[in-house]
Amino acid sequence: MANTVVSLDADLLRQQARAETGLEDFGDESHVDAMQHLLDALNTEANLNEAGRAMFAGRIRNILVCRLRAEDWFRRHPEILEEEIRAPLAIVGLPRTGTTMMHRTIGADHRMYAPLWYEVRYPVPFPGTDFNGIDPRIAVAEAEVAAMLEASPELASIHPMDARGPDEDIMLLEQSFFSGVPESFAHMPSYGAWLDRQDQRPGYRYLKRLLQFLQWQKKRFGQGSGERWVLKAPHHLRYPAALCETFPDVSILQTHRDPVQTIPSYGSMMHALISPLANASDKAAIAQHWAGHWDRAMRATMQFRDAGHEHRFLDVWYQDTVAKPLEEIRRLYDFIGMPFTEEARAEMEKWRDLNRREERPSHQYTLEEYGFTEQGLKKSFHEYRERYILARPTR
Asked: Under the phi-then-psi rule, with left for phi > 0, alpha for psi from -120 to 50, and beta for the rest, what region is 158?
């Protein structure tokens, strides 16, 4: 029997989502065109294999299901959208600069709300959730993380995966179809270029709605009353204006490390995610594409800072966050006007004791296998390196 090609068709996916939920309203129509452009790229540019097509069909269908159920929750519980997202902290920086370590360490403070992996992957409660027991999303998320690590074992040495741990809110942006998440699983540069030209504010508005929803859920699950959210996504480097327009009182922690050390590592991670889902993949082409993306993102943030927004930012350097992380976090808490209590320090130290880097395998790669040279990277990121790497302050 011939294999049936998994369909990546917008009408069919919407029909399947409606059939699964019995609901009709997908919410804001801004996602429609973005979803269609994504599907066009997946069908014509991504060179997906059978597993890749199945993964994307399931992921997009899941997003549509989540959107339907989210709108139903908003209709039945209008108080959700009255939740206040007060003075959030956003951690940004090039990938591989310590953003994950800072995010998860700060997220150990019980006064902070951090979006957890299972929450950003499945932001809407599963049907039948009563908020009194163990969240059923956790088991599903843990199985998915295990499957990802089985398909790409090298991910364990590149990015720590934890279904219950804090993770990037870009996965919430994915629910709007305004995010770079699809490009993390398929090489489709023309789609990325199209997305970059779009107004990003609809995606960020939907991100805020989902954070309001998660905050409401956390209270229902009895997970405290966090004083503020700590968010994290390198993605925000590219669109700082949309981030700050959506969250006018946001403070931004920017992490720094030499791109010569970070960009090839990120390229290897992207190749590890993309290659199992493609008929063929070019690791150098993938890495070079992302190098260009992060160069544009860093320039966008430098321009934004220079346009009168410097006061929003606190800078930290990778060497300092490795050598004296809690001292740097104390400096951050002073910046945002939040007491750095002994209880918070103890919670962070406990998390760090349980999550030491040396317990994970080392990440092995060379610049050359991803099409880079040290001098080429220094030239590409010349302005950034002059401003933040070569001129790094000593304290």
From this structure: alpha
Residue 114 near residue 103 (C-beta atoms within 8 A): yes
Q: Where are the alpha helices (DSSP H) in the chain?
A: 10-21, 30-44, 50-76, 99-107, 117-121, 137-151, 155-158, 170-173, 189-196, 201-220, 240-246, 259-274, 283-304, 318-323, 325-336, 342-354, 374-380, 382-384
* CATH fold label, 86-180+200-358+366-389: Rossmann fold (3.40.50)
Residues facing residue 228 across a β-bridge: 112
Cα 14 to chain centroid, rounded: 25
Report which of 171, 189, 277 is spatially closest to residue 234, judged by C-alpha positions.
171
Spatial neighbors of 386 by CB under 8 A, at least 6 apart, are: none
297 within 8 A of 234, measured Cβ to Cβ: yes
**pTM of the predicted protein model:** 0.94
CA distance 72 to 25: 8
Q: What's the CA gap between 178 and 243, in Å, rounded?
A: 13
Domains in the chain: boundaries: 86-180+200-358+366-389
pLDDT tens digits for range 119-162? 999 999 999 998 988 899 999 999 999 988 887 777 666 667 89
Q: Which helix (H) or strand (E) holds 232?
A: strand 228-232
Q: Are 304 and 200 in contact (CB under 8 A)?
A: no
In 10-49, which ranges are continuous DSSP H helix? 10-21, 30-44
Question: What's the rounded Cα separation, in Å, for the pair 395 and 387?
Answer: 17
Q: Which residues have C-beta within 8 Å of that of residue 375, sequence separation ≥ 6?
A: none
Contact yes or no for 222/263 (Cβ under 8 A): no
What are the residues facing 229 on neighbouring strands?
A: 113
Which residue has 């003075």 as its token pair? Answer: 87
Burial class (CB in 10 A: 0-12, 13-18, 19+), 153: exposed
How do residues 159-177 score in pLDDT, each as one tens digit? 678 999 999 999 999 999 9
Strand segments (E) across 289-376: 313-317
Q: Are 139 and 164 in contact (CB under 8 A)?
A: no
The structure tokens listed for 138 are 């956790």
Instruction: Give the residues across from 255 on adjacent strands.
Output: 93, 316
